[in-house]
Amino acid sequence: MSYDSLYQQSLSDAEAFWAAEAAKLDWFEFPHTILDKDGDDLYRWYKGGKINTAYLALDRHVNKGRGQQPALIYDSPVTGTKKTFTYTQLLHEVSLFAGVLTSLGVRKGDTIVIYMPMVPEAVIGMLACARIGAVHSVVFGGFAAHELAIRINDARPKYILMGSGGKEIDRVIPYKPIVNAALDEAYFKPEGCIVLQRDFVTCEMTPGFDLDWYDLVSKASPVPCEILDAWDPLYILYTSGTTGAPKGIVRDNGGHAVALHSSMEYVYNADPGSVFWAASDIGWVVGHSYIVYAPLIRGCTTVLFEGKPIKTPDAGTFWRVIEEYKVNTFFTAPTAIRAIKKEDHKGDLFYKYDLRSLRYLFLAGERTDVNTYEWVSALLQKPVIDHWWQTESGYPMLANYGGLGLFPVKPGSAGKPNFSFDIRILAADHSEMPSGHEGAVVIRLPLPPGCMPGLWNDNERFIKSYLTEFPGYYFSGDGGYCDEEGYIYITGRIDDVINVAGHRLSTGEMEEILAGHYAVAECAVVGCNDELKGQVPVGFVVLKHNLDHQADQIEAELISRVRDMIGAVASFKTVYFVERLPKTRSGKILRKIIRCIADDSEYQVPSTIEDITVLDEIKWTLGKKS
Ligand code: COA
Ligand code: AMP
Fold first, then answer.
1. What's the pTM?
2. What does CATH list as the number for 501-625?
3. Which of the ends of the chain has fewer CB neighbours closer than 10 A, N or C?
4. Residues whose beta carbon lies within 6 Å of some atom of ligand 1
């Protein structure tokens, strides 16, 4: 079957397409309705289906004779540890930890926050929640206490699963002070913390609140899977929106399992038994979908890597892992490839390894620039595939299709729409843009299975943020265009979200943090081009009167304020003090123009600008500092 005919089929009869995909999984009860609407008038897939995601990821494979196959390979250059879990072993660990949770009174529908580094116990914790129907919410280990507190307040977890710390290259990051500070700040109080002590950074336990992970496991008994409704939530994953409050993206059990399984077949062409490696972090959606759930649901071996593309110990580390575990499908972010390119431009480290097992390199998280694409394609001599997706979708919305024989790659494009994604490019007046012309990237409703059914406890915000601007469509927040052959090019966010080294962050949130400093009268944060990280946030700040002489000190305070409140991952390191910000006559800050000036790219001055001379002031300030 060709991509074109299958895609057309998925549009003309989406229900038949997704019923057939659903039939590839083991349900306790097959859904009686494939697509329906819930009480909020929002679309839902697979009503009446009874399922369990952990069962699909583990029990099913053991029952079918895959028990001795490696399920999870843990490789941690930062701690010098390697460990393999077969499907039988992983199932045992997950069932036992699910027993720990139930012995503590955790039940279906309860929430659990997971704040852990890239260790197998984090995956075990996620799958254990899935096994008993508890809803996990993993918080990326690079986020600071304030971000964790926001998520605790919103998710209201019964327990927090935490590691005592992580390692950033050779720097130890103790997690306990971060969790304690978050608990002090949060108004919601969980019943306790389950602490995984790591030998390089043990933490003090708070009596009556902190419980030792392996102490609990030693006393636990395994528990079976809970039979769940397809619509039951599997997890909440918070992602940056345009304001300080992150959005709690909800993922259901049924649609998610079907969509991920389907993507493993069509997009990644990953057969059961093959080795799949997504070099991301479990704190991001790529980690949820392609380190944990999709490879296991498909019966692959997944690799959990605790390290960086460089310096752990060198820029050959990715290639070493691919050789050592005979990885077939590899997935990472373009920024990681750029980091490797910078350190090993000629590929001296690359050529030390045997990469014959590798079939594809998939890239996402940000646009793959043509230079990076060409460099890595020449090095690997294998298909390099840029594909586009978001936390909201949970899997690729644009891609190329390894399972259907790949169509020719066009560098700079993220490919063509995935099944039942009816993607359109619209102008501000909602008309369709002709090919080659940029507009807002939207998707006609209903969204396919696996996409977010809503926001955690806030469907009003879901409707307002995603479904209101273009009625009948989901608005992705990205801009882009489509060429005459149907290839889509994503050109970047058209809202206040930026991507810094593959990490999604809100400039609006950074502005709120800067504005909270006593010296700041007004500010704008924009994402400027960065050779390594794609984008980095840069602050433009107007100080209150008579504070100019303290500028150096204020600059340092503003930088550490963002680092303390969001985390080091924000990479907020540059502040420009300006007299005024460019605005429209109605007072709207012209952030796009500031960004264009900083990036030295072309821009159009709107006729509504309040005072055009402010642009020269910004240019002068930028020139002065550089
Ligand atoms: N815990 C604590 N701190 C963390 C962290 C974590 N899990 N992850 C990152 N940080 C810190 C880093 O130590 C760094 O701190 P510093 O400013 O004190 O040096 C800061 O956050 C920025 O980190 P990072 O963005 O990772 O930059 P880097 O310069 O250390 O590394 C890359 C650059 C490109 C190698 C790295 O960003 C990378 O591997 N990116 C790929 C990201 C990815 O896979 N994203 C998934 C999307 S698919
Ligand atoms: P996240 O929700 O963290 O996965 O970030 C989603 C955002 O990352 C998207 O809205 C895009 O702006 C960007 N993004 C992800 N993949 C790509 C890609 N292949 N090309 C361009 N932008 C991408």
1. 0.96
2. 3.30.300.30
3. C
4. 141-142, 166, 168, 173, 279-280, 284, 286, 308-310, 332-333, 335-336, 339, 364-365, 501-502, 532, 568-569, 571
